[in-house]
């Protein structure tokens, strides 16, 4: 994992300064601090430490991923060459802002969901920023959520367009299976949820269901003796405002694109100390 993170960070550095930083100033040894300007859950420290290590910047002390932070908190103290600190400043701050925002949104949704359903899992989706997925998924986990699939290679998942191509739910579920991969099926109706369970799905995703529809699907699966044979996931338009409603419906997983595509970033600043 560390090697992959290094590779990504080097790509980001090349994007940000393909020919170096042309704003040349005298280089000297300096100390600097990164300060929080918002309140939430800190995430990205481990990634930023790898970035600073690549730039030969020493992290003298820092808070940890997952710690609560508030405005004015010093989250990292640095020492290194001024040109290195200035060259990596924006990338480091961007990573902390984005990851901390996601961790904060995830933690909020986990807290609200588990207040009514202590065992429910709050998960991410693949609605992520191209090139930044690994960091967004890490932030979800730091916030107490589940990363869900990292890629199309992680799980057999039949969505509405797969079913449309196959011509029917039954034909789509004849996809070649492996004992190492679970089969998840996205459904849009209570009837299809029952069919998916009867056809042998491991996970049923109730997509864009209302809480009332979720309750109906869960009850019907239970009545037919199928509830305990499947994992029930709810997805579609789940936000911090309605997550508790869905969690109360006796579901196992709630997945939300909100936590990666709409979570507000937390603000940070880097200050060179005189």
From TrEMBL:
Catalysis performed (reactions): nicotinate beta-D-ribonucleotide + CO2 + diphosphate = quinolinate + 5-phospho-alpha-D-ribose 1-diphosphate + 2 H(+)
Broad EC category: transferase
Keyword hit for Transferase: yes
GO cellular component: cytoplasm
Pathway of action: Cofactor biosynthesis; NAD(+) biosynthesis; nicotinate D-ribonucleotide from quinolinate: step 1/1
EC number: 2.4.2.19
One biological process term in Gene Ontology: quinolinate catabolic process
Domain Quinolinate phosphoribosyl transferase N-terminal: 21-100
CDD domains the record matches: QPRTase (cd01572)
Domain Quinolinate phosphoribosyl transferase C-terminal: 102-271
Origin superkingdom: Archaea
Keywords: Glycosyltransferase, Pyridine nucleotide biosynthesis, Transferase
Single Gene Ontology MF annotation: nicotinate-nucleotide diphosphorylase (carboxylating) activity
Family: Belongs to the NadC/ModD family.
Subunit structure: Hexamer formed by 3 homodimers.
Function: Involved in the catabolism of quinolinic acid (QA).
Name of the protein in question: Nicotinate-nucleotide pyrophosphorylase [carboxylating]
Organism per entry: Archaeoglobus fulgidus DSM 8774
The organism's taxonomic lineage, starting at the top: Archaea, Methanobacteriati, Methanobacteriota, Archaeoglobi, Archaeoglobales
